[in-house]
């Protein structure tokens, strides 16, 4: 192998070994943003002073009713909270909206006809894909294939109708995959019974950078971007396989087959290890990214026969991995060995992925209870708080920024704040002369 190629290969392997989810907060305060599904893709927030306790009468900054139904999470950029919903008995209307984080006031709203409709039921997705935001744009994606880019003030920049371009959705449950992003591109995964594909789309123009056709398979999981900005990779865990692709070209890098039940949880990565969640015991595992030439069977670092991950995605934090099974039991597992350290029964099942911030782990049960555990206790669980807020339907998603949690219920948005009411209503400080 020529010397240049050898050096390039060594560099690529080193980048893989240190790969972590690629942040989209360059040039700003990362704790002030929650830009996409699971934040930066890892469900870890650098936000300070998140709320520890709340109920219907305390620490609720505002709670508003939304015009439609949504299973997507909110995303936040600075003072703007962006949400998506669908409305109508056949989900015939798509809605993209922006609210003010401090007051809950509606900043703008865009309603448009869905390019593909489906009757509402408990068995089909309803605005399930989580949108994304960066310093310039808000990107709203719907399971109808409608994809729109807006400026932060609501000005429409470009729009796509993916189902019209590549074929209608085929299947029983709709799409649930959220968009992932780098600084330059959006990544859209469409896995269903019809024409399936992975798209890289230029953020500025809305045009394809590349399109990778895939074997038809049904999955709700979302792609994850990992690695250095110049060598970013896309990880996809979907219905039997885990795959890695080069983000700038779509080139396939490696693949692991033989999984079952990895249809909903998305992959999680840290320190060169990829953790895969699945609803079937024995198929929740850790993979080494390692060398591109390493055989698939050699990548498996451990399998767990004790844990499962049915709805939310696994959370890696401080050398531990946290899983939540269908019954609402949380497990703490050592990242390097797969050893189960503890398990703890939560108040109920969690459809929302857990998040970590500082020394706390937040688990959001779908019925409105939130359990906060200590991240410093890895030999046994330590409950720091259990909070309840009324929930008419389900808790689907959450965004975390400084002193704030914004929780998405099906038709409501709730801002939980650690600020006092006086702090929230105080005018901004004047700059000193």
What this model shows, in words?
The protein contains three helices and 33 strands. The chain has helices spanning 3-17, 162-166, 421-425; strands at 33-34, 60-65, 75-77, 80-87, 93-100, 106-113, 132-133, 137-141, 146-151, 156-161, 180-181, 185-190, 196-202, 208-214, 224-226, 233-238, 241-246, 252-256, 268-270, 273-276, 284-288, 300-304, 315-317, 320-324, 329-334, 340-345, 355-357, 360-364, 369-374, 383-388, 395-401, 404-409, 412-417. A hairpin with a 5-residue loop joins strand 17 (241-246) and strand 18. The longest helix has 15 residues, at 3-17. The protein is globular. The relative contact order is 0.15.
Structural category is mainly beta
What low-confidence regions span 5 or more consecutive residues with pLDDT below 50?
1-27, 428-433
Shape: globular
Major β-sheet profile: 5 strands, antiparallel
Rg value: 21 Å
Give the spatial strand order of the biggest sheet: 1-3-4-5-6
| β-strand number | 33
**Average pLDDT:** 90
Percent helix range: under 10%
- Strand percentage lies at 35-45%
Instruction: Enumerate how many helices there are, as a single number.
Output: 3
User: What's the end-to-end separation, in Å?
Assistant: 63 Å
Map the helices and strands:
Elements: H1 3-17, E1 33-34, E2 60-65, E3 75-77, E4 80-87, E5 93-100, E6 106-113, E7 132-133, E8 137-141, E9 146-151, E10 156-161, H2 162-166, E11 180-181, E12 185-190, E13 196-202, E14 208-214, E15 224-226, E16 233-238, E17 241-246, E18 252-256, E19 268-270, E20 273-276, E21 284-288, E22 300-304, E23 315-317, E24 320-324, E25 329-334, E26 340-345, E27 355-357, E28 360-364, E29 369-374, E30 383-388, E31 395-401, E32 404-409, E33 412-417, H3 421-425
Antiparallel strand pairs: 1-3, 2-33, 3-4, 4-5, 5-6, 7-8, 8-9, 9-10, 11-12, 12-13, 13-14, 15-16, 16-17, 17-18, 19-20, 20-21, 21-22, 23-24, 24-25, 25-26, 27-28, 28-29, 29-30, 31-32, 32-33
């Amino acid at each position: 192998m020529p010397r240049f190629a050898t050096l390039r290969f060594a560099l690529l392997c080193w980048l893989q070994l240190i790969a972590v989810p690629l942040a989209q907060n360059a040039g700003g305060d990362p704790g002030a943003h929650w830009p996409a599904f699971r934040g930066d893709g890892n469900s870890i927030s650098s936000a300070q002073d998140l709320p520890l306790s709340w109920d219907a009468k305390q620490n609720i900054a505002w709670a508003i009713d939304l015009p439609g139904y949504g299973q997507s999470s909110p995303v936040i950029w600075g003072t703007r909270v962006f949400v998506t919903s669908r409305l109508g008995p056949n989900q015939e209307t798509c809605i993209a909206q922006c609210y003010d984080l401090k007051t809950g006031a509606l900043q703008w709203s865009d309603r448009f006809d869905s390019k593909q409709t489906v009757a509402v039921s408990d068995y089909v997705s309803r605005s399930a894909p989580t949108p994304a935001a960066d310093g310039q744009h808000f990107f709203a994606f719907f399971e109808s294939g409608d994809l729109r880019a807006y400026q932060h003030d609501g000005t429409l920049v470009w729009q796509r109708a993916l189902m019209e371009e590549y074929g209608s959705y085929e299947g029983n449950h709709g799409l649930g995959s959220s968009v992932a992003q780098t600084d330059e591109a959006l990544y859209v995964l469409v896995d269903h019974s019809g024409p399936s594909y992975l798209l890289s789309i230029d953020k500025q123009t809305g045009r394809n950078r590349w399109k990778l056709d895939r074997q038809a398979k049904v999955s709700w999981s979302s792609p994850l971007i990992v690695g250095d900005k110049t060598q970013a990779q896309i990880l996809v865990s979907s219905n039997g396989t885990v795959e890695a692709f080069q983000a700038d070209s779509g080139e396939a890098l490696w693949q692991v087959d033989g999984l079952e039940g990895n249809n909903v949880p998305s992959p999680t990565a840290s320190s060169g290890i990829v953790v895969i969640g699945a609803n079937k015991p024995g198929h929740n595992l850790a993979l080494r990214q390692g060398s591109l030439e390493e055989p698939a069977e050699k990548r498996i670092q451990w399998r767990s026969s004790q844990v499962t991950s049915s709805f939310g995605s696994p959370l890696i934090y401080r050398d531990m991995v946290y899983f939540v099974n269908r019954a609402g039991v949380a497990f703490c597992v050592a990242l390097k060995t797969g050893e189960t350290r503890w398990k703890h029964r939560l108040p109920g099942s969690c459809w929302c992925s857990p998040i970590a911030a500082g020394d706390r782990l937040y688990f959001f049960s779908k019925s409105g209870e939130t359990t906060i555990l200590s991240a410093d206790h890895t030999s046994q669980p330590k409950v720091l708080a259990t909070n309840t807020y009324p929930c008419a339907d389900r808790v689907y998603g959450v965004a975390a920024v400084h002193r704030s949690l914004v929780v998405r219920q099906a038709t409501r948005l709730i801002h939980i704040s650690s600020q006092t009411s006086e702090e929230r209503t105080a005018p901004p400080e004047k700059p000193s002369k």
